[in-house]
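Researcher: I'd like a structural prediction for the single chain below. Treat it as a standalone chain; there are no partners to consider.
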Amino acid sequence: MRITIEDKSYYVGTGGKPFDSELPTVVFLHGTGMDHRAWALQTRWFAFHGYNVLAPDFPGHSLSEGKCPESIEDSAVWLEQMLDHLKVAAAHIVGHSQGFLSALEFAANSPKRVISLVGVGTAAAIPVNPALIKTAYESAFDAAKMMLQWGFGPNIHLGVSPTPGMQPLGQGLQIMGLNPIATDLEACAAYTGGAAATVKVSQLEPTIPTAMILAGKDKMTPIKSGYAAATTLNAKVVVIENAGHMLHIEAPREVLDALRGFITELT
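Model: Treating it as a single chain, here is the predicted structure.
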C-alpha cells in the first residue's frame, strides 16, 4: 500500500490484505537498514487472522521516499503522522532493534495511541561502535556485511534457512546495502532518551502491556540490556535461545508464536 504525506510517497506493507481501519491494528517497525520484508511471516499471519497490519518502510528506506529520520525522535514523529493519515486512533506497536527505540519514544509521548508495546532483539539504548558508523559512511554494503555477520546466529552462517529456497544473508545484503545505514546508526548512537522513556511508560496509568522478545545469541544488543529494559517496563520476557539479533528473520515462527500469544490475549 502506498500513502502520501506532505507530497512524499511511502510504502506500508499490509501483510497481503487490504487496509481496513475497522480492524484492530498491529504496526511493525523495522530496524537499522531494513524494511517491511523483515516481518514477512509475522505480518502475513496477523493480516489473515483478523488484524489490520501496517509495516512501513521508514522514510528514505527501500520503497519509501522522503528523508531518512536523523533521530529517533524524528522517526517517532513520522510514525504519528502515518497513523494520523490512516486515521488509526491506537495500535499494537512492535519494533525490532532501532524500530523499538522509535516505538518506545512514541509510547512515551503518545501513550493513548499504544494498545501494547513489543520489543524484539532490543533494549532502551543501542550503543554503536564508531568504526561501524565510519564504515557505513564509506560503504553501506561493507557495513551491511559486518552487521549481518554479527546479526545472525550460527545456523544461518552454516546455510540453514527457516524458509526453504531463501537465504537471509544474501537478501539482507541486498536490502541493507541500498539503505541509509549510516544515518540509522547515528540515530541509534545519539539517542539518550530511552532510559527516561522506559520509566515514563512504566509509570503510566493505565499501564501499557509490554513484552520483550530477546535472543540468546544476540551479539549486537546484549540480552542483559534487553532484560534491564524489561525490568523497568515490567514486561513479559520471551527468550529464543539459539537465535541472534535478527531473530524475527532467523526464527520467524518462534517470534510469531510469542507475538501471537501476547497480542491476541489483549484483543
